[in-house]
Write a structure and sequence with these properties.
Blueprint (H helix, E strand, L loop, with lengths): L1 E4 L4 E5 L5 E5 L7 E6 L4 E5 L4 E4 L24
Antiparallel strand pairs: 1-2, 2-3, 4-5, 5-6
Length: about 80
């Protein structure tokens, strides 16, 4: 289960019993808001119109070759 922790700029991961598993991007995101999963990567949308692609190891997995107006892809620091 993913929780957008806007106040702390991070995404928290919990298991299905509600137990904390890990944090993604502590103090990195600017108010994370929405998630998508393509089966391998996690995409995190934030209120600053930035979409970050997080790979299976909580790192940037790939950058799309084409940038879209209003969006940018950035690295997630571990």
């Amino acid at each position: 289960m993913l929780v957008a922790d806007r106040a702390n700029g991070r995404v928290q991961v919990f298991d299905m019993e509600g137990d904390y598993v890990r944090t993604i991007g502590a103090d990195y995101f600017d108010r994370p808001t929405v998630f998508a999963n393509d089966g391998e990567n996690l995409l995190v949308g934030a209120l600053n119109a930035r979409v970050t692609i997080v790979g299976p190891n909580d790192e940037l997995d790939r950058i799309p070759r084409r940038q879209y107006p209003g969006f940018r892809v950035t690295r997630v620091a571990k």
